[in-house]
Amino acid sequence: MKRKALAAGSVGLLLSAAALSGCGTTSSTSSATSSHAGGTAVIALATQTSPNWFFPDLSAAAFSDVNTQVDSMMYRPLIMFNKQDQVDYARSLVSNISYNSTGTQYVLTLSKKYKWSNGQPITAQDVVFTWNILKATSGSSAPWTYGGVGIGGLPTRWQNVQAEGNDKVVVTLTTPSNPDWFIHNGLGQIWPVPESVWNKDPNNMTAELKFIESVANSPSNPVYKVVDGPYHFQSYAPNSHWTFVPNPSFGGHKSSLSKVIFEYEASDDAEFTALKTGTVNMGYLPFSSWGARSQLTNDVLTIPYQLGFNYLILNFNPKAPGGLGPIFSKLYIRQALQMGVDQPGIIQSIFNGNAIEEGGPVASLPKTPYADPALSKPLYGFDPAKGKALLEKHGWHEVNGVMTRNGIKLEFTFLAVSGDQAQTNLQQLLKSDWAQEGIVVNIQQQQFNNIIADANQQGTDPEKWSMADWGGGWTYQPDYYPTGGGLFATGAASNFQGYSNQTMDTLIQKSYAPGTSAQTLQALYNYEKFAAQQLPVIWLPYPASSYAGASLPEHAKNLHGTVSTFNPITDMIFPNYWTVSQ
């Protein structure tokens, strides 16, 4: 699972022509007269968001969609999944996966289709080297923590990963497992790097990890010259742009574009102006600019939903300010907060109707068998009077407008994303509705990357915040089989809120177990129902969104392939399939 940036939820299922609403057209391809080799795609990033980790296996503090989107230009995951959430062997680094009857051993055969850009083959040794990095960064003493700890049973369920020759990898687990879950969430999160380039200190993993950390945000470093993806990194200017050029040695579909540029956007106004003037040809329509969309006469607007959900987190850490960590651990407190979230009102007033109500950890759109249909609506509807009565029932009394009990006040810092007007409006609406219950939040806005860093329980200072919202929700990546192990399990790397519940842990573990299709799906639903009831996070409405979560996707009429090639399951774009027409 990865954090999305700004006004969005998670990745939507198919971006079809029927899902489009036009700014001048209702066609996703806008019938080009002629396409030609060359041209540049300029892609706007979410407001005040920058890629900051270019090593393809992301740290917990950099575990975001924007980093994956940019890194996927240079590197391929071991396994690619198609729009139906099935293994796509034609695009994967593996040509075959076999496993035993108990789901404890998996044999991966590497494809010969893809190579490193220096001409060397991608080997089993590269895969094992990358696994060793993931294993090392799953421990508490590592210089940095891998963001996928807890996903796919990492690291406790993995017993051994070893190479057999140059083209086979054997993965052995400690416990019988559902192969569908493990292939998706375990094997699916390995993004190999070339050992010959990255293995700087074979006898000292700590030194190796410190080196990776030192160059993680330095894409011009020579280690990034050897890649297996469709593009090479060319140049960048911080808080300005990041430029990629085609990799002529790429084993897949080669780019017809001469350049792909990711562009930093300082504000919604800057983003809208860039679309209007054509300085970007792939971007997003800010929700706050919905009324002005008719001005974008040369663009096509799409309204997709992505596999995931939207939420904000509470700080359960005992060191949380004001002694509120143990208070937030009380279910009735979270229920009162949830009753103060006006999902229908937010959908209409903030997202212009382009969002859905959400009641659990897998949103009802896009349609997927992985979402429990019983949770299509919130279990706790908007009712601030009922929420206030619930607090009073447990001994809280309003003092000068703030609910107070035993000297503790329900007044705290709300760490919230800056730069997006829709998110600012949402924050103010939440503040106003919670005030009706005597819950006072003091909004402190920061940029997306800063919130991710400050809210990281493993990294910085849990005393800085009580509630946090980076504004974009969560995508199921790399846990394409949407269990909660990476986010809600005790000690998971992305469990920034420090949530811990033994029943939740048990249900998550049961969702990994082998069984019939009906049994494994029921186990997943049992976890989802418990999460909906227990509120490990506060559910927010789930907006339609673009890649990496930045509002509604928009592309110029002469840029083709952005919609048809986008994979909403993996939240990946494929500029190497895009073309520009004259």
What does this structure look like?
The protein is α+β, with helices and mostly antiparallel strands and 582 residues long. It folds into 3 domains: 2-75 and 229-306 and 545-581, Periplasmic binding protein-like II (D-Maltodextrin-Binding Protein, domain 2, 3-Layer(aba) Sandwich), CATH 3.40.190; 76-228, Dipeptide-binding Protein, Domain 1 (Dipeptide-binding Protein, domain 1, Alpha-Beta Complex), CATH 3.90.76.10; 308-543, Dipeptide-binding Protein, Domain 3 (Dipeptide-binding Protein, domain 3, Roll), CATH 3.10.105.10. Helices cover 23% and strands 19% of the residues. It contains 14 helices and 28 strands. The protein has a 5-stranded mixed beta sheet with strand order 21-20-22-15-24. Helix 13 packs antiparallel against helix 14 (517-534). The longest helix has 18 residues, at 517-534. The radius of gyration is 23 Å and the shape is globular. The model is unreliable at 5-33 (pLDDT under 50).
Features:
Peptide/Ni-bd; transport; 23% helix; SBP_5_dom; five-stranded mixed beta sheet; Dipeptide-binding Protein, domain 1; SBP_5; 582 residues; alpha+beta; D-Maltodextrin-Binding Protein, domain 2; Dipeptide-binding Protein, domain 3; 28 strands; globular
